């Protein structure tokens, strides 16, 4: 252990004062009896392991034990990988019914890794030298001489290129370098189509039946009782269709029935059918499907940002960050007694956008 | 005697007395009842209604009105059906302890027989959904995968992916459905208790309901599997983030302290 | 073997040395070795926070490579018939299905997925705490401002990597997050619609966003991060690590353990400790159980829709906004409910980037700093930091308002209103309280230096008075408590110069002086004890 201290000087001899004892440690010029002076690095105090070989041996054993545990844990990891079925579930208190393989692999690999780390740390803390070493810092900025050379070199380089004197070259080069990235920007054009009117149109159109999302059957007014909640899609749209997700993202419909006497908004009542109101399910804030419907208060809440709409009052915004009511779909009943749409929404559904108006 | 008087105040005492009274009533009834079978059923039904009405007057009428027509303190019960009564009373939500934004779940104080009588009475006020048969809500009969799909379509928006519940407006909430009796799940879907919308059979068929129950039984029952390990409440990124900070980073910071702590010196004063 | 070789040559090169010589002749290894093998690293637990970030980053890279072997970044719709029964027959994208396969069919896949996600969360948490350490101790000061910028960029990119990665499985939760991003993109004035159509390859959700996020998540962002991370490390080596004041430690040296062997053992060992802890977490605690969430469909949602924690503050900003939306003349809509949060999200990084330069402008300090500040000695900066953290915490609260509501039986509206007020009030309060606490601690330090440490020993003086014996502090502590810089606040020069000509004082200069007074004026710091004061007290009438 004592040889450690000696080796410091060898390796760092060049830029280390290596003074550890005494008053002027750390290169502080100590004023005569300055009560606040830097006392310098205190003399090194040996650890048990530095002076007692038995203690050092004990540390050695602990470290090697940890490394051995790691080896065993890796073997256990491989054994678990081979032996345990990927779908086996075991009950482990207090974790619950967990995958046996995941638990076994995680614990064995965790132990294998952790004990390597613990061994290395224990080794460094108890057996490697803990003599503190001082190293000097050098200013980050270059010396004046270096600075002068560097600047002169740069000037020479630019002068030899004649970029300063030959203005036409400089200007055309800058022009070329400015223009050429445009090629890259233009290439991005085909990332997607232009919006066109896509954000204003949904699959709803005059005559389209309202299809129950759960049963895939067209809805009748008598199915929809007061206080119920149901979701509808336009006739003809099926899950698994190529454009299903794009279309349902706009067309998703939420149907509720409110006693006509409780509907505050006249227009909203007119657009419904005997108290059955069809609202867009897509929040006007950023587009989460709002559908946390409270049948007694007629409030519907968005689970993402808590915008609250009053479905009995034209889906007016009661609370939260949404900026305008949910669009309502005009519906009525056909001769066969099925609900159908009287047209598309009369305003864009979903989150607002610049051109929305 | 002293013992008995001490037990008179036991919480279950009322129940015991009630049971004895009921047994006595039943016994008396059996003695004097006419023997015709069809007639017996009919009269037992009407008797249940009568008994139910008595219980109703004691426990429910103060809010819902003596005829169940409702008052400023409680809605009309005409047409809510037996299923609604069974759900509300067996889960302890009714009778209400105090008026609030929402009736919480609490221990139920009635026997199933009393609840049945109460349900019979309320059902007699107007047609409404009946209490479901066990074959309708037995989770074993449902399709878990389809139930999951339906649950995400109709229920998850309020009750969370696996039914852990969530917040509604003004302090109301959709409760956690873990461990709820399948019968009550069925009744809740059918009747729409409190602010929950109802999902009548035409909108969500009886098979659909059973599938949903099967899914909830799979993900939320006592035997629910969580292959990845302890589920941290199933609340998603919030609990995961909290856990990563407190236990993940926390454990690592403890290790940093160990790594940089001064090793024990030989000369300890 | 060693005996035979020592006979033939005095100093035989070992095999390792021969390899080093070979490399030196081609790469100049020994030169780098001379500088770095015994390089000194100071020891303090808080210096390892950055290491946690480094190691979790490496773990994320390693596990991420493994996951790419199995993950299919495709939004093609398919019907699942894999081994997870509760999803049998459900329509989903290939991305989601392959995530299920990784979780249920690939042996150990679930473990690696969970290691990946847990270490990603801890990675960003560790970067954040590391950054706090650097901020509160003033380690960002000259010459380390540039490294602050690199570190900051790493944090931002870490969040981008996290968000894109979180979105890849295409489950109902992450899809909701992508929907939010689309809504936010649409809310960008003028170009929003076009931007959204270009990013998503058309209408939401389309079939392009997952493959595009995949490229960003596994190639673009990690590539840049790896580069920045290496530069960050090189600069740490080049600048040498900062240290706290202490015996033997000065601004011109660095005191600690040498790179080889102690630091190598500690740092290398710590890598394994971090990896071990994260693996144990992944083996025992589930994270992002996508099989419970179901595949994404734009018309479905679940309550409790939150992003991972590091995006929580943006979620909070969005949640507490009132629903302001204007239609401006010309028929154009501005969705302030999203646009204001977007602007704040833009301003916040600017403030973080600018702070080191702001502070050095206020103090006018151009020196190199290698000795760290104790947070109490710079009350204004510490106050800003705590105010900042308070602000983030308030926003996190807003971001989880629904869970706060259900778990503490509150109403969402009440929490949101609380946040709307606290957003403005809480940071100011936190700033004021923190500064007071710092000043109090400075006063206590001053007392300790001048009057010594309270020993708890009560002595009775001859005339009957009881006093507590105070013991002078050890030299090291005296030094630590008095070695910090105390700037004198800037003053506005005379408005009229010597020749009677009116000097112009620009408003910027006035502001600077005002800020400097705030930082270092009477309200900003307690004068540290001077040698003179100390000698007067100690030489005079004893200690009390």
What's the short version?
The complex is a heterotrimer of chains A (357), B (269) and C (544). With 357 residues, chain A is an alpha+beta fold. Chain A contains eight helices and 14 strands.
The first-to-last residue Cα distance of chain B is 74 Å
Overall pLDDT of chain C: 92
What is the approximate shape of chain C? globular
The CATH homologous superfamily of the domain at 33-125 in chain B is termed: Cytochrome c-like domain
Strand content of chain B: under 5%
Q: What would your notes on this structure say?
A:
The complex is a heterotrimer of chains A (about 350), B (about 270) and C (about 550). Chain A has about 350 residues and is of the alpha+beta class. Chain A has eight helices and 14 strands. Chain A has a five-stranded antiparallel beta sheet. In chain A, helix 3 runs antiparallel to helix 4. The longest helix of chain B is centred in the C-terminal third of the chain and has 24 residues. A two-stranded antiparallel sheet of chain B has the order 1-2. Chain B is elongated. In chain C, helix 8 runs antiparallel to helix 9 and helix 15 runs antiparallel to helix 17. Chain C starts with a helix and ends in a 5-residue tail after the last helix. The interface between A and C is large, with 105 and 125 residues. Strand 3 of chain A pairs antiparallel with strand 4 of chain C, so a sheet runs across the interface.
Set down the secondary structure blueprint:
The complex is a heterotrimer of chains A (357), B (269) and C (544).
Chain A: H1 2-12, H2 48-51, H3 53-83, E1 89-92, E2 96-99, H4 100-126, E3 133-136, H5 144-161, H6 167-187, E4 210-212, E5 229-234, H7 244-251, E6 253-257, H8 266-271, E7 276-280, E8 292-294, E9 299-301, E10 308-310, E11 316-319, E12 328-329, E13 331-333, E14 339-341
Antiparallel strand pairs in A: 1-2, 4-5, 5-6, 6-7, 7-12, 8-9, 9-10, 10-11, 13-14
Chain B: H1 2-7, H2 13-32, H3 37-59, H4 61-64, H5 81-90, H6 112-125, H7 134-137, H8 144-154, H9 156-159, E1 166-167, E2 173-174, H10 182-191, H11 206-220, H12 237-260
Antiparallel strand pairs in B: 1-2
Chain C: H1 2-8, H2 15-27, H3 29-36, E1 40-41, H4 49-68, E2 77-79, E3 91-93, H5 94-104, H6 109-136, H7 145-167, H8 172-186, H9 192-200, H10 209-239, E4 253-258, H11 259-284, H12 290-293, H13 312-320, E5 325-328, E6 332-335, H14 336-363, H15 379-399, H16 401-408, H17 412-451, E7 453-460, E8 466-471, H18 475-482, H19 507-520, H20 531-539
Antiparallel strand pairs in C: 1-4, 2-3, 5-6, 7-8
